[in-house]
């Protein structure tokens, strides 16, 4: 594939932004509608809450866990081909799932295959924005995340309509056709002429070393390139952010999975219960661009990580509302307040990551970040389902969500403050060391802050003939 067809910050960048917006709506917005099918699938397969929870859990986990493989595909083929491949895989998984006869088959098709396909499309669409935008990167990420809001708004409405008219099998078959639109969006994402764009290697790969040491070295280099363990080890900000988000994810997806069953369990009409998720999505359509504009201001550039921690804290506190009352009017207010914090998280999540790591390592850093995220995503819904089966009380699910979110926010906010304080304390010492080094090279006498003299070095000049 030829590279450098488009330039960054050009007119085509905004077309790519629109394609990324649609792709995120189709992929990242889809897991929020799985709660619509929760009760139907539970009755169809005669499964417990915990067993049924594995379906959205595997789907969302694969949406994030495929990051390293996506990084390899992006490096080898570019974002364009990877997005199109993801759309084809997601479509294949949903079509196959409509013929499933057991819940374990559904885990494989709609969970594993569709989730992996959505991962390829979603993460590649995020990566391509980093190549196309530099000055307006925060705004571009926020505008693209509006697609998630559109998806959260439209997917539940479409799911409820198809479930009533075609059943869950017919709905999944239609979803297979919808995911093919990712291929159209991928075709729009032409390669961009930047020095950090993923290079496409032409021709066969170089011959590999057949020795055991050579294979291990090659595997180590591949893992470091696509999983960025070196960044996790040496970049304290990336380490804090990754651990905080991994802990946060244990509670963050629970309302999307259990809000609709929770409302129906308390007697709310099915249509009104599905409308709650759409309210969250519709509110985010307007709130996410506003959050992006605020985050994109230069005044807030150094405070984005604190704004993210504040949004996580608000999200955790908001979930306590569901534990108080299940009245429909209370739940509507909950959804509106929840949307404010969710918009902040959605608009800042990837922007903070781009601020912490260099752009040429973003794809690999995102790969490791999403793999660790997927572990929490895989555990969270089944753990909540087990808690629900044990207690038969939905309130404990929202208590659990609040605990993880609030503790994660406090951890990230406090850790970032400590890191910033250490950084400020280290700057004067580095500056003094640089002055002493320059002075010693030139033979100057230097006094430190306590007035004691430093050692004098004589400047020697060598004259050589040419």
From TrEMBL:
Family annotation (SUPFAM superfamilies): MFS general substrate transporter
Keyword list, A-Z? Cell membrane, Membrane, Signal, Symport, Transmembrane, Transmembrane helix, Transport
TM region positions: 53-74, 81-99, 105-132, 139-158, 170-189, 240-262, 274-294, 306-325, 331-353, 365-384, 396-419
Naturally occurring in which organism (per UniProt): Crocuta crocuta
Signal peptide start-end: 1-29
| Localization annotation | Cell membrane
InterPro entries the UniProt entry points to: MCT, MFS, MFS_dom, MFS_trans_sf, Proton-linked_MCT
The primary location reported for this protein is membrane
A Pfam cross-reference name? MFS_1
- Its recorded name reads MOT6 protein
Ranges of residues in domain Major facilitator superfamily (MFS) profile: 13-425
Q: What are the annotated GO cellular component locations?
A: basolateral plasma membrane
Top-rank lineage group of the source organism: Eukaryota
**According to its UniProt record, which protein family does this protein belong to?**
Belongs to the major facilitator superfamily. Monocarboxylate porter (TC 2.A.1.13) family.
According to its record, how does it sit in the membrane?
A: Multi-pass membrane protein
Q: Does the keyword Transmembrane apply?
A: yes
Question: Which gene does this sequence derive from?
Answer: Slc16a5_1
Q: Which GO terms describe its molecular function?
A: monocarboxylic acid transmembrane transporter activity; symporter activity
């Amino acid at each position: 594939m030829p590279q450098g067809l488009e330039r960054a910050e050009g007119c085509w960048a905004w077309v790519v932004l629109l394609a990324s917006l649609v792709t995120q709506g189709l992929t990242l917005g889809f897991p929020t509608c799985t709660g619509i099918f929760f009760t139907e699938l539970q009755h169809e397969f005669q499964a417990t809450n915990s067993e049924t929870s594995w379906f959205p859990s595997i789907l969302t986990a694969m949406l994030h866990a495929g990051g390293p493989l996506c990084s390899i595909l992006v490096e080898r083929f570019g974002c364009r081909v990877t997005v199109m491949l993801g759309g084809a895989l997601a479509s294949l998984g949903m079509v196959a799932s409509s013929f499933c006869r057991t819940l374990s088959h559904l885990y494989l098709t709609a969970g594993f295959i569709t989730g992996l396909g959505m991962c390829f499309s979603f993460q590649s669409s995020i990566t391509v924005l980093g190549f196309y935008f530099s000055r307006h990167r925060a705004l571009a990420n926020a505008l693209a995340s509006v697609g998630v809001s559109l998806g959260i708004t439209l997917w539940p409405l479409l799911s409820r309509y198809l479930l009533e008219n075609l059943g869950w099998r017919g709905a999944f078959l239609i979803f297979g056709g919808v995911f093919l639109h990712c291929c159209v969006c991928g075709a729009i994402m032409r390669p961009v002429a930047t020095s950090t764009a993923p290079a496409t290697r032409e021709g066969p790969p170089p011959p590999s070393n057949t020795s055991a040491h050579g294979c291990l070295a090659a595997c180590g280099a591949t893992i470091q390139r696509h999983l960025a363990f070196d960044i996790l080890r040496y970049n304290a900000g990336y380490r804090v952010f990754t651990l905080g988000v991994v802990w946060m994810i244990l509670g963050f997806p629970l309302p999307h999975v259990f809000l609709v069953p929770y409302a129906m369990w308390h007697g709310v009409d099915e249509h009104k219960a599905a409308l709650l998720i759409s309210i969250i999505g519709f509110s985010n359509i307007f709130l996410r661009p506003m959050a992006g504009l605020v985050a994109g201001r230069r005044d807030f550039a150094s405070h984005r990580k604190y704004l993210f921690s504040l949004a996580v804290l608000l999200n955790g506190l908001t979930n306590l509302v569901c534990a108080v009352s299940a009245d429909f009017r209370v739940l509507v207010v909950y959804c509106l307040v929840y949307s404010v914090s969710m918009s902040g998280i959605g608009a800042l999540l990837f922007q903070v990551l781009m601020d912490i790591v260099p752009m040429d390592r973003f794809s690999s850093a995102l790969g490791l970040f999403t793999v660790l995220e997927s572990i929490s995503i895989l555990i969270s819904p089944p753990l909540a389902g087990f808690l629900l089966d044990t207690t038969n009380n939905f309130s404990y699910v929202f208590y659990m969500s609040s605990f993880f979110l609030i503790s994660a926010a406090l951890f990230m906010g406090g850790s970032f403050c400590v890191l910033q304080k250490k950084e400020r304390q280290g700057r004067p010492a580095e500056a003094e060391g640089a002055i002493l080094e320059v002075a010693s090279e030139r033979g100057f006498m230097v006094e430190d802050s306590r007035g004691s003299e430093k050692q004098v070095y004589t400047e020697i000049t060598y004259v050589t003939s040419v």
